[in-house]
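Appendix B. Raw example, untouched.
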Amino acid sequence: MVLETRHLQVVRAVAEAGSVTRAAALLGVSQPSLTGQLQRIENRLGGLLFVRDRRGAVPTPLGEFVLAKARQVLPAMEALHHESLRYNAQGEEQRRIRYGAVPGPLMAGTLRRLGEQSPGEVTLRTETSSAMLVQLIAHQALEFASVLDHVERPLRLGAEIGSRVIAVEPAMALLPESHPLARRPEVEIAQLADATWVVPPMDDNGLRECLLRLCAEAGFTPRITHETEATGARDLISEGHGVGLGQATFRDTAGIAVRGLARTPLSIRHILIWRRGVPGPALVEEVAAHAAAAYTAAVARSPAYLNWLERHPGYPAGADLPGAAPGPPGPPGPAPADAGGLFRR
């Protein structure tokens, strides 16, 4: 019989338990089975390892020698096992990245860059709810996710969630090109008091709440006549059935004019999140760089936003907005639950 790690574990268990009976219970085997195994170990080593007295099983001099060696070898073997698991997990991290996103400027560009740069499989899961993606990250169903919230109503993140603000942009008015206000570079929210509104359904993110607040501050209640997802909203607005709010990086769509809101009453943050301690720091930095590049490319494809930025050179783009500056990973701050959900092509 070749001496193995499991044999040293038996010797250690008997010494620590003080009897074969208690050691068998700790190891989850029967007492006769453990007795037979101990006898085979003793036969292999050429002598008794334990004697029985009133104190229980007491190590012999040979037993003390073997125990001393076992107490050196077993911790090293256990450390090797755990370190190998961690090493393999890091390898899995490099081989597979599960990425989630709300529809927005980070989604497709980040996915493409991950696919080009990552050696293994990259998968995408889209959700309309930022809060759902936070839960998927918390339960380790995703490695990374791109979510959004409003500066005025930050997304709640638990302490286990790491985050990086990638960009901050203004919310924009989405108008039919035939709308009289579409000829202006910016509109006052109060000028839309008589409009009919197209918004996401009630169970989406926080657009309706933000819209109601803005309109209440302007002295009116919006007339919400159509509730639909982003694709339906584009069709309805382009056909003249209502107006909406959208992200600044909303792509050009035939029949829709993207116009800024005067005094920028609502700002949107695009945030990369992950579970702390799961992706390594180097991978976090790599994915954050991909997300930032994706956002820059999205801005370049958005003429209306580029024009708006030319008229607002002092827009903070994140640095001066509360809780919005990119920097060390960390939650944006406590707030009511999820607040994402503006229309985005």
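End of appendix B.
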